[in-house]
Amino acid sequence: MKGNTMSTTFSKEEKAAMRAAAAEAKAAKLGADLEAACLGAIAEMTGTDKELAETLHQMVQKNTDLGAKTWYGMPAYANAEGKVVVFFQSAAKFKVRYATIGFQPDAMLDEGNLWPTSFAVTELSAADQDRLVELLKKAVNRA
Hints:
Layout: H1 12-29, H2 34-43, H3 47-63, E1 67-71, E2 74-78, E3 84-89, E4 99-103, E5 118-121, H4 126-139
Antiparallel strand pairs: 1-2, 2-3, 3-4, 4-5
């Protein structure tokens, strides 16, 4: 189409994420250790990304009953139905300046007509961690 500036091709990182999602689905069907995969994804990170992912992992483990897994190659945490509730995306994965902590629709964080579902993260202060724990508890109806 002449004049169309939108790209219809996926980036190398997006293609890798799609391959990871397919491999995750296959591994889950075969009964793979999903938490080990999550911890492996975190172990592959470096620097601030790794610190943030480790902190989130500890917070999820301590404050929820969500199960660790990977989702598109990223650390993620799912409910008993296997639906991802919260995920971590490293800054390095998509070559951006901040990591992302995101919540999926099953988190039910609804607040009126407008609410955040993901957060840009460069560090997690004590206050940030407290707020995140509140969101995690709300996400699993334990607030």
